[in-house]
Q: What sequence folds into this?
């Protein structure tokens, strides 16, 4: 077992770090306060290939592995949790299912533009009555001639109004499974601008404020028959697969937020003086930092392991990375919340002021325990595997 | 069109400079980066490539780990990398360096050679023009803008308060300023390709028409008497007056104290 990163990964990390410091960090506070989607950053990320990192080159991507993509989300999130989730939702939740389940025509039609940033992706699974419980779907899709007709709504959709291509999960009928009638769920690709596809309210959130979170509304929205993604009735499996990958992205976001808060705090405690000396000289500060750094390192190992496991799955689809992804997401999210909370505490009153980055980081950290499956769902996934 | 960009791996001087006891730079103690002026020169070459499809080769002289800057350049979009490395070439000053690089360039076809104005570790600005002299090429230094028109280049040469527009027939050599442009980032896929790319490595034996008397430490007429980091300013005094009036009073007081007013 070798924990040394390869030359490629070291160089990629430096690239993401430089980009985050130069292009993302200067905007982080402003876009958070203004709740403004950083379109200019998305364009730059598209130009440099950040929006198609794990996609093969022949489909317009960068041809890199899941670890490279994970490090990209991590480094972006160190300075701006919003920018991290824009890349994560786009790549893990839209690009990945199209790459994995799309027909050759669908891949050729959508992936090059998604990878170049000409188009942005989103994923519509959550509904008011179906978040963690994906079987509670109400949105319906009915085949009418050569078109599917969608009716229903999706809520809390990341990249909501800013995206151009949406992977949408809907009920297409009923099937009998183990003697019970279950909803048959399928996945679809829906393009912005399709008649009958509109946006509802924009969510006013606690954190990741510059991220565009919207309700998607489908009213007799007719999409071509060929926009069915994967086989009819495979939507639940597609959604679960997508969430497994998405969890690695969010785990990387959480890890990045925690690392950013730790780095910011280390710099602050060396500067801030109380009782005539830097607060870094107090044992309480030292022990807090030691605990924070140790947990961040443990989270990093779990996140990178999940990414490596996903790479193994790509070489051999029989390998599952579901548990690794759940563990990484569960732990990294809880570490992000703990570390950012401690970071605010070590900043004292300044940590509660918006001028200081840790205030934003603590608000951004909370969502990582909730979306892409709550921490409780991660525990269900992990324990179900232990007890099967 | 073929462009060769000469680049150098230099210690990042942002965090201060560290020296060995003998006055030479302690390169191991500092982060290694692509020299900023050279990076601007590379970006200029890559923009010409974007427009005309030119082939861009990057060339460096240094220790084997200098291949890292060649890989970085390839990850930004350069086509080929050549590393000139040999123990006998070590300790070279600008004369021995330009002799070596010219010896390497004699093996390659080129229309345009671009170097950075100067490297942040030596700040001499001599190597670029010296290479041109060795090769008998016209040189335009301090370029802040480069345009290619047919077999000519039109370059703005920067001065403190003005610029000159110069035209030169290719082949020629241009030295680039970091003000020339904002270099692009690498791409993730470019990095993976660059790490697999084969770097051509040349030693003393591959240099064409050079005399051993002009190579390495022995061939370097420059002798370093003493080396020091530039004097860094202290942190200064931080004051937080309660009102603008108080701030003005404080500043005026200080200026009087220093006999400025």
A:
């Amino acid at each position: 077992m070798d924990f040394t990163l390869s030359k490629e990964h070291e160089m990629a990390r430096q690239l993401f770090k430089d980009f985050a410091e130069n292009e993302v960090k200067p905007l982080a506070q402003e876009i958070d306060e203004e709740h403004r989607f950083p379109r200019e950053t998305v364009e730059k990320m598209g130009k440099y290939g950040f929006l198609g990192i794990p996609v093969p080159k022949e489909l317009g991507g960068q041809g890199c592995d899941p670890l490279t993509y994970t490090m990209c989300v991590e480094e972006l999130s160190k300075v701006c949790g919003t920018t991290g989730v824009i890349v994560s939702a786009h790549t893990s939740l839209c690009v990945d299912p199209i790459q994995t389940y799309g027909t050759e025509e669908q891949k050729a039609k959508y992936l090059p533009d998604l990878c170049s940033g000409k188009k942005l992706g989103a994923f519509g699974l959550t509904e008011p009555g179906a978040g963690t419980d994906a079987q509670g779907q109400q949105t319906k899709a009915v085949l009418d001639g050569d078109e599917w007709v969608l009716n229903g709504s999706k809520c809390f959709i990341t990249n909501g109004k800013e995206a151009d291509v949406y992977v949408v999960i809907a009920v297409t009928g009923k099937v009998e499974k183990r003697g019970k009638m279950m909803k048959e769920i399928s996945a679809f690709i829906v393009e912005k601008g399709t008649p009958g596809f509109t946006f509802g309210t924009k969510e006013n959130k606690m954190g990741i404020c510059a991220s565009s979170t919207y309700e998607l509304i489908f009213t007799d929205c007719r999409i071509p028959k060929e926009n069915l993604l994967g086989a009819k009735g495979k939507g639940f499996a597609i959604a679960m697969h997508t969430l497994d990958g998405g969890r690695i992205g969010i785990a990387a976001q959480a890890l990045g937020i925690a690392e950013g808060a730790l780095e910011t705090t280390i710099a602050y405690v060396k500067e801030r003086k109380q009782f005539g000396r830097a607060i870094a000289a107090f044992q309480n500060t030292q022990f807090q930092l030691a605990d924070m750094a140790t947990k961040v390192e443990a989270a990093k190992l779990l996140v990178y392991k999940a990414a490596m496991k996903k790479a193994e799955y790509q070489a051999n689809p029989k390998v599952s990375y579901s548990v690794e992804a759940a563990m990484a997401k569960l732990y990294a999210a809880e570490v992000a919340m703990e570390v950012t909370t401690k970071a605010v505490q070590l900043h004292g009153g300044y940590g509660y002021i918006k001028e200081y980055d840790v205030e934003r980081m603590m608000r951004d950290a909370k969502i990582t325990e909730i979306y892409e499956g709550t921490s409780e769902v991660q525990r269900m996934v992990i324990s179900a595997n232990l007890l099967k | 069109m073929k462009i060769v960009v000469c680049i150098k791996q230099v210690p990042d001087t942002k965090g201060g400079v560290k020296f060995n006891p003998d006055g030479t730079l302690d390169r191991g103690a500092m982060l290694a980066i692509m020299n900023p002026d050279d990076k601007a020169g590379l970006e200029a070459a890559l923009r010409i490539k974007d427009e005309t499809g030119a082939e861009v080769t990057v060339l460096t002289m240094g220790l084997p780990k200098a291949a890292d800057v060649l890989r970085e350049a390839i990850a930004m979009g350069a086509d080929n990398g050549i590393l000139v490395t040999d123990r006998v070439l070590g300790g070279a000053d600008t004369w021995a360096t330009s002799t070596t690089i010219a010896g390497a360039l004699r093996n390659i076809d080129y229309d345009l050679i671009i170097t950075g104005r100067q490297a942040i570790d030596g700040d001499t600005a001599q190597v670029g023009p010296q290479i041109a002299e060795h090769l008998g090429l016209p040189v335009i230094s301090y370029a802040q803008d480069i345009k290619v028109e047919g077999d000519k280049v039109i370059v703005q040469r920067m001065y403190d308060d003005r610029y000159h527009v110069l035209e030169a027939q290719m082949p020629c050599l241009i030295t680039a300023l970091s003000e020339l442009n904002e270099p692009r980032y690498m791409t993730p896929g470019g990095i993976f390709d660059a790490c697999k790319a084969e770097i051509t490595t040349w030693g003393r034996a591959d240099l064409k028409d050079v005399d051993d008397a002009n190579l390495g430490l022995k061939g370097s007429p420059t002798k370093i008497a003493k080396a020091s980091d530039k004097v860094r300013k202290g942190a200064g005094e931080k004051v937080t007056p309660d009102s603008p009036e108080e701030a003005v009073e404080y500043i005026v007081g200080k200026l009087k104290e220093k006999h400025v007013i």
